[in-house]
Amino acid sequence: MTNEKLAAQEPSKSTATVNRILLVEDNSDTSEAVSSLLSAHGFDVITATNGGQAQAAFMLKKPDFVITDVMLPGETGFEICERFKKVDDRVPVLIWTAIRLLDAKKLAARVGADGYLTKPVEPHLLLDTINRIADRNWLKHQAKTIEDKSSDS
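Above: the chain's sequence. Below: its structure in token form.
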């Protein structure tokens, strides 16, 4: 995937606001290409190559969305997702990997991932998935807020 091809794709519009994306990817070429795509579409992208960097970025930079690979040095994207969801379940996490096994998708769901994409992925599909997950997550938390307010009454 070239940077020009990535930047040329137009995503669907989202009602949820995603400004800052944390991208956890240890392959520098992939990280650079995806960062360029996301930046070209107005996202502020923070990159990390392992769980330690991801944890620091998550706590200090407060991303609106997380995209993580699974196979990373030191720990898996599943472990990162599970930890982030315990800290703040309002931040959507997309597992993005070359692993196409049903068991991996089930594990992603069990650890709280909001979506699962397999590489390689077309740029428009990645962008649409980010918007779709962000919208779904926003609606889920809006409904919970309304439910909490009505039960307090």
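The radius of gyration is 15 Å.
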